Amino acid sequence: MNAERWQQIERVYSGALARQGQARTAFVAEACRDDEGLQKEIESLLAYEAVTFSISDWAVLDPPSTESLDRFIGQLVGARYRIAERIGEGGMGVVYRASDEQMRRPVAIKFLPQAMCRDVNRLNRFGIEARVLAALNHPHIVTVHEVGESDGVPFFAMELVDGTTLRERIRGMSMPLREALEVVHQIAVALAAAHGQGIIHRDLKPENVMVRRDGYVKVLDFGLAALRAQTPSTESRPSAGTLGSIVALIGGTPPYMAPEQIDGAPPDPGNDIFSLGVMLCELATGANPFAQTTIGETFRAIQQAPGPAQSAVSTLEPRLQTIIMKALQKERSQRYAAVSELGAQIRQLVTDIDVETAQARRFLRIRPYVAAMMALALTAAAGAFLTYRHGERIRWVREEAMPEIARLATVDRFVPAFRLIQQS
């Protein structure tokens, strides 16, 4: 199947997803007129629109391999890596903990099972990931040490990150604001380095980010990476009719994809900026603003960006709201011009929060009873100078604000405590 045919499928498929009911039927009939093969391809892809998912299901649409590679445990691969135990698996390979006996260091070995080697798309993605990671020498991107083959099974040896994936870290809950900003800033720094070499990640999501025990971030899984303005290879295209083909057809994981990715536009750094905005929203609120229960609903939600995110971020710190909404603009030209600009905005917000926290700590003397005494003084002042019609406000200060100020100070939330004192 040539590139022109794939572009036609992408165009019709995206157009069909944007419509429902009779409008969709009429659109497909008109777009596929006198082309029975095209209509079958589109109907095959659309058949998966009604398949339901939870957010955890979106992590890997390709099923994990059923082939056992545990035969390598205890063995040497590549003449230097002693395999210890399996630590992860998914649609793009199986990962083992190993020891580099030459360099005397722990490593991770990622194998592509032989069954997957017969899938040209997966084999190409595996090769792309290995080459891209080997080319990107950056502290926030996992390092590849060697690419090889053992007993007919392709593998690459990479840095072993002592930590968990970001998905495991959040477990469907929001992160403390400063921690979330630090994580996203480190990801932005990694992406800026990749973009500087013309490499677009295209599949950024919490599963593809590792967080070490000390909070240091490593970006991984560049299996869908592409060069900027690259024309997708027809050799790596999947056959339609499988769920994984929808992801490989357009490139990415649906709830984190930019609108232009869904439309099949050439790779652009703006793809990663949008995805990073989705992740920042998820870390701050505990939920992906675009994830729905079906593929079609998810794509339609993304095409309405940033609308679905507006209510999700409404309770966040105003400056954080601004950052997220700019990153999630539907039109590429309205997002940040570069991911480094997004990173700089986040870095500035972290600095501002640190300064405000220090000021609040000094103001409150880091003693809960100080906050309570100040609120009591405010109540007394209000009682002395305000008229009867302000009684409700006085009651609020005495019965609600004062206890809340004391509680916030007790748990070291000095900035909101300070702001509540100002409000009182």
Strand content is 5-15%
Helix and strand composition category: alpha+beta
Shape descriptor: globular
Name the CATH homologous superfamily of the largest domain: Transferase(Phosphotransferase) domain 1
| Computed CA radius of gyration, to the nearest angstrom | 26 Å
Q: Strand order of the main beta sheet, please?
A: 1-2-3-4-6-5
Number of domains: 4
CATH class of the largest domain: Mainly Alpha
Write down the overall mean pLDDT. Answer: 82
Reported CATH architecture of the largest domain: Orthogonal Bundle
Helix content: 40-55%
Question: Which fold name is given in CATH as the topology of the largest domain?
Answer: Transferase(Phosphotransferase), domain 1
Distance between the termini: 69 Å
Low-pLDDT residue spans: 231-244
Could you give the order of the helices and strands?
HHHEEEEHHEEEHHEEEEHHHHHHHHHH
Major sheet attributes = 6 strands, antiparallel
Count the E strands.
11
Number of helices: 17
Describe this structure in words.
- There is one protein chain.
- Helices cover 50% and strands 13% of the residues.
- With 424 residues, it is α+β, with helices and mostly antiparallel strands.
- It folds into four domains: 3-47; 70-159, 2-Layer Sandwich (Phosphorylase Kinase, domain 1), CATH 3.30.200; 164-353, Orthogonal Bundle (Transferase(Phosphotransferase), domain 1); 365-423.
- The strands form three sheets. The protein has a six-stranded antiparallel beta sheet. A three-stranded antiparallel beta sheet has the order 7-9-10.
- The longest helix has 26 residues, at 339-364.
- The protein starts with a helix and ends with a helix.
